[in-house]
Each structure stands twice: as C-alpha cells, then as structure tokens.
Amino acid sequence: MNRERILLTHPGTSKPKYLELRADGVELHRSWWTGAGKPQERMKSFGSGRAAREALEKIVTEKMRDGYAVLRDVAATEPGDVLVQCATPATNGIVAFALHPDGGTLAVARGIPDRVRLRLDSEVQTVDLRTGARRVVYADASRNSAVHDMAFEPDGSHLTFTVRNTSSREDTSHTVALATGHVQRLPHTRLGRDAVAGRMLVADDRTLRVLGPDGHSCLDLPAGERSQTGTAALSPSGRLVGLIHHPDNRDTEYDLEIWDVDTGRRVLGAPYPFPTRADNARGLGKLMFDRTEQLLVASDETLGCCGISVESGAVCWTIEDRLADVALSPNGTRLAGARIQGPVIVYDVATGQPLEPRFVVPGEPSLYYRTVEFSADGQLLAVGDHPGRVTVFRFDGLEFTKPGG
C-alpha cells in the first residue's frame, strides 16, 4: 500500500531532523529541515505516478533503517490510523518486539547480518514512540543467536527476553533493568508471566515449572527434551496452565492438557485440536487463555487457530488460515491474527468470526507478516513484518462489523 505523502522524524543529536516526501503525479517532492529551521527542497520527475510512489517508498525504507520513523500524536489520529512506523537496520527482519505497559516505548529484537563472516548476531533496543530515540539495551555477538519471548514486566521496570542459539537450540533468558541498563541472566528459560498472582512459567532442563512470587515451584510438569517442548501458557489469574505436547516426545496419552496449579491435578486431557498431518509434524504456535479462563485459544502456524472449552475440551470454533501470529486483546473480546501474507484480521473471541476493518501495513509490500501484539491498555495494536518494520496502529475507538455488514 504505497503512500502519496509522509513525514519522517529522526531524534538527531541536538535537534530533531525531519524529512517530508510527497508524490504529486509523476513528481516526487522532498523537503528536509532540522528543528525549527528553514526547509530545503528538491523535486524529481518519473515516468509515471506509480514510479514516483514506488520511489517514495524506497526512500522511506532506507531512511527508516537509518533511524527515521513515522511519529504521530494519538490526539491527531483517528481509530485505525498508523501512529508509529519504524524499521531495524537489518534486512533479515524482526525476531521479536514488545510494547511497554504505558504505550510509550517499543522494544525490538533484531539480527545483525555480517556479510563478510556470514554471522547473525542479536541486539535488543528500545524505541521511544514519542521522539524516535533509540537505545541498545542488550547485544549478543555469539554466532547464530535469535531473540524470542520478549515482554516488559507489568510495572514496566524490566524487559525480559530469551536468546536462542540457532545451532544448538539452547535457550537462555535475560532481564534488563531499564533504569540502569543492568543485564542479568536468569537461572531458567522463561516462557511467560502472570500479572495478577505474580506466577511465572519457566522451562528448566526437562521440566515445565510454575514459580510463585517467592521463586519457589508451585507445580512441576514433565515436558520432555527442551528442544522439543510443546507450547504452554499460564492463565490470567495464574490458576491454570495449559500445554500441548510434542507428538514424539511425551509421557501421557493426551496431546493437550490443562492443569490446576493450586491442586496439582490435571483438569483436562484432550486430543490435539488440529488434523494430524502425514508427517506427524506440528507448527506449534501459541496457547492463550481468555480473560474468563473458560476458553483456551490454540494456534498452529500452518493449520489455523481454534477456541477450546476449558471445561469439556470441545472445539468451539475454528479459523482455517495460515496465521504467523495471534494475540488476544486485554479485555479478552478480540483476537488479532496476522496472516502470513497479511493483512491482520480481528476476530470475535466468542464466535471466531472475522470482523472488519482489517489492518494492512502501509508502504513497501511485505514479504510476510511475523508478529502482532496489543498494548496493555488495549489502545494500540503493533504489527511486525519482514523486511523489519514495526507498525503501531490506534486500536481504541474502532467499531467492528461483520464482513458485508
């Protein structure tokens, strides 16, 4: 979705820098200035209006990799509009991102390709969504590392993420104190955290553990080899934990299980909710409990997404589509699903029905969408795509309708 006009901002060293691009027919106009200085201008003609718009997007991509970003005030936008769009310097795309609970900071993990030594290092940086200022909070120079499962603590003081060695498949989790920049390695691989009860889901050797606020284990579950651990999730209250086992590595007859953390009892055992493929492979995506903890949302990267009754294990609805990522809204009523080729479709959690409007990343066509996430207050929806952009939409105030309604 090419644009005809765009304003980019760079935090600069002492004063912010601005670049405005405008496609007017076959002409591309460029204006740039620093602070409150006088703009300089340049114009170039192209063979067609389409060529002018494509040239605009090419410049936008290059400038975003240099630190420029689209930054708009939420008060000046309408529901569904783009508030922020930025990009990583790397061309291999985004590994993970997370929104700060206050909605003002974005954490982005990226790979840094070294074309000479064919290395792929990792880096985590924060982006101020008001000024565009960036800060590197973690860097890993080891070969073939990638960051995933990144999240801010509920109070916003720390950023936690997991680094995977893509050769050995070993994971290590770290936390960064944002005020000081101090990085600490955690003694376990962290999979998620509950904001209400202070409980945490971790993987330790061959065991899934739910840790309490004091750091002691509330529940231990055998999960098999770490590299083949299935998908797991903690419910919003920390009362339940759900997991899907790898088909070739389990010590239970059930594929899907839900356990009560307080009693240590399994409350549900059910088959894998998607059809078994001929190669017995599973594109395990995410497990998420809704706010009521009556519905468990399960996604498969190749087969789609479904809602499962926590009480009976019955499949309540199914979305048959290739979804790169899914996210539940904080109020538990909406599910955002990022189709691999886009766009992001919002579904009704109670019925699984798709809703309008949809979210399309503006600019140069994406190779594929990768990640989607809501802000803690539900006002923002962020989408990550390849070749390495994060686009933040205003979500609050949108009125959704059924397709054709």
Question: Helices, strands, pairings?
Answer:
Elements: E1 5-10, E2 17-24, E3 27-34, E4 40-45, H1 49-65, E5 70-71, E6 82-87, E7 94-99, E8 105-114, E9 119-128, E10 134-140, E11 145-152, E12 158-165, E13 171-177, E14 183-185, E15 189-193, E16 200-204, E17 207-211, E18 217-222, E19 232-234, E20 240-244, E21 256-260, E22 265-270, E23 284-289, E24 295-300, E25 304-309, E26 315-319, E27 323-328, E28 334-339, E29 344-348, E30 354-359, E31 368-374, E32 380-386, E33 389-394
Antiparallel strand pairs: 1-2, 2-3, 3-4, 5-6, 6-33, 7-8, 8-9, 9-10, 11-12, 12-13, 13-14, 15-16, 16-17, 17-18, 19-20, 20-21, 21-22, 23-24, 24-25, 25-26, 27-28, 28-29, 29-30, 31-32, 32-33
Cα-to-Cα separation, first versus last residue:
24 Å
Structural class: mainly beta
Number-wise, the strands total 33
Question: Which regions contain 5 or more consecutive residues with pLDDT less than 50?
Answer: 113-118, 225-229
**Count of helical regions:** 1
Sheet having the most strands? 5 strands, antiparallel
| C-alpha Rg (nearest Å) | 22 Å
* Chain-averaged pLDDT: 86
Tell me, briefly, the overall form.
globular
Strand order, sheet with most strands: 5-6-33-32-31
